[in-house]
Structures are given as C-alpha cells and as structure tokens.
Amino acid sequence: MCSTAIDLDAASTLELVNAASAIAAELARRTAPESAPACIQLAETLAATGDMQEAALSGLIGVVDAGREVQRWGYPSTRAWLRSRLGMREARAKERLTLARQRHRLTDVSSRWAAGQLSTGYAATIADAVTRLDDHDCAAAEDILLDMVGQGFSAGKVASFGRRIRDVIAERDGREQAPDTDTRRGYERSWIDSTRSLDGGRYIKGWLNAEDAAIWDGTLAPLAKPAGTDDHRDLSERTAAALNSVLSGGHKATKVTVICDLDTLTRGTAAARLTDGTPMPAQQARRIALAAGVSPLLLGRGNQPLYLGHRVRFATAAQRQVLESLYATCAVHECEVPGTLCETDHVHGWALGSPTDIDQLALCCGWHNRWKHANPTQIHITTGPDGRHTYRILAPPDTKPVRPPPPKLQNAA
Prior knowledge:
Layout: E1 2-4, H1 13-29, H2 36-67, H3 78-84, H4 90-102, H5 107-114, H6 120-130, H7 135-150, H8 155-163, H9 165-173, H10 181-184, E2 191-196, E3 202-207, H11 210-223, H12 235-248, E4 258-259, H13 262-266, E5 272-274, E6 279-280, H14 282-292, H15 317-326, E7 343-346, E8 361-364, H16 366-374, E9 379-383, E10 389-393, E11 409-411
Antiparallel strand pairs: 1-11, 2-3, 4-5, 5-6, 7-8, 9-10
Helix pairs in contact: 2-4, 3-4, 4-6, 6-7, 6-8, 7-8, 7-9, 11-12
C-alpha cells in the first residue's frame, strides 16, 4: 500500500495536480486484480474519480479560455490548444470547451459533478443542450434535464430531450411556445458544423432555417432523384452526390490538385495523393485526369517561374501550386488549417529582404501569419530535406516552468 506525502488541506493546486498525476501513473503500472467482482467495484469508483477530475479540468480550461492565454502561446483558439497541446480529438475538445463555458450557468450541475454525483457524460449532454438558450431558459432546462437524470434516463435520452428543450420548457410552464428564435432572426442562426474522420472523410451536421431549407430543397431535390432503375443508392447517398455536384459546379469551378508521377497517369499502380496527404488509388487519379484535364506541377526550375527574387512580393499561381503540394497544413507545427486555405508566407519576412523564391516561401494560416510577424522571437524555423519549412512556437519569454517533479510515493508504515 502506498500513499502520497502531502497534506491535502495545506497543499496548493499545483501540488494536488502533481500528486494526482503520481497516483495515476502508479495505477496505470499495476495489473488489474483477477477478481471480476472486485474489478467492477474498482472501475466504478475510479470512473467517479475521473468525473471529479474532469470537473477540476473544466475549471482550469475555463480560466484559460476567459483569459485568452492560449494566444500568447501561438494558438488561435482554446479548441486548437486542446487538440494540439492536450492531444484531444475534435469532438472531445469541443465537448470540454462547451463544459468550461457553460458551467458557470449550470450551478447545480457543476456542484453535483464536482461532488462525484453526476457523470461527465450527463454534464456534457446538459451543457450542450443549453448552449443556445438564454439564462432564464437555461435554468429551466437544467432543472428538467437533471430531473430526467434522477429518473434514470440514459444520456442518449437526455440528449434527445435537450434537442427539443424549448418545447419542453413551454409545456412545463404551461405557456404557449414563443416564435422560434431561429425563424425570427432569419439567416443569422443557420449553422453547419463539420469534423474530419480518421480516414480523411468528414462528418457534417447542422440546422437550416426555413429560408435556407427552401433553397436547399429547391436546389438539391431535383438532383437527388434516382438516376434510373439501376440506381440503388438511398436518398442520403443521392443527396450527398447532389451536394457535391453543386459545390463542384459541374467540373467548372472545381480545383482539385492530385500529386502523382507520370507513370501513374498512364499505367502504373503507385498511389497518388491529395494536397492534404490523403492517398488516392492510381485508377481514381486517372479518372480525375480524364475528366478535368492535366496540368503539370513542376517541383523545381523549369517552365514555370518559381524564383522571382526580391523584385516581386506576391507568389505566383505556379508557386502556390508547388507550395500546396508540400504543405498539407499550415507550416506551424500542430496547426491543422489545410494548406489550401493558408496564405503564402515569406519565411524570413519580405520586408527584411527575403526573396519571393520557392525555397523561401511557406504556407501559413492567416492567424499564425500575423502572429509570426508580431512575435518573431517566439518562432523557431527548421527546414526538412524536402525543402519544407516547419515553424515551432516557443513558450513566452516570461513563462516559468509549471511542472516540477511530482511528489514521491512513500510506503505507508
């Protein structure tokens, strides 16, 4: 049996965090007991402990978010910091940020959560449900959803109720439902959220008001009809194909860069790739080439003017095409903004004499491009053998180490 040499009442928050880290490390090293009944009890206790730890983490994230501290460290948003620094996936980062921003309005949820009486799953479900509610309706929604939790409803059931919470509140208060806010505000409240999947695809969810929904139906419905008796796609698949057809403009407005060698375009089997690194079978690359034509991408001195010196400030289209083949994302390490949405950056600053040559350019998102100019001493630049520049952001100069060695675990007498 081990215990930490720390006085809980007198310890600082930093000391408590380090003690929790040491205990977690010791638990992770141990082998689970062979007794299944014992493991059930231990798992339930440890899960409740994890929920209380999540409550503490939410408080810390809330302070970081409110103080905009992450921008001093070169992160454009708190969510970007959660993804890059804390290693969270997009869905988890969004959930933790929502909890941190809503917990001050959910006083009962926060107190139960911190006391281990409410799981993180329920807390996150309620926080997500009240995000678009005003303070008055938020309090009412909290009471309703916590009552559902007390009755034993699953988190999924609570989430379903949360999606129609305005109607539920109106029914409970015995008043007529007010005109929907999204309808009153016209186009301002339509929203679409998307997250990238591990295989390079994208999950999409959202809500459209009546006007936008009418445009959606009028544009996509005719295109989503079955192509014939042999079209076995369901409506969802046909709608996705219709949306892609509209976005691509029938091959008139599409810009798709496929990187491959000449052999792949003829008869080879080597995989091609998109600018974000997603692999593409050779057969699919040839099909795109036949439909859209082929534009040569020269990765050096050749028929395209890639080296312009200091007399020209802005990169050419040919240079931009080369850069998009090198940079799947922003040059800043851990920044996830796609290279196709980034700005062309002079690595050492055009005003400082850096030429507009292909080996002196990189792709950098707009936020980091401005941040790099304002904080030149916090950028460390390295260049790989492929000519790709990587920007690494250094800690602010006034930052002190915040991770002293954790307290040692001592054997109890």
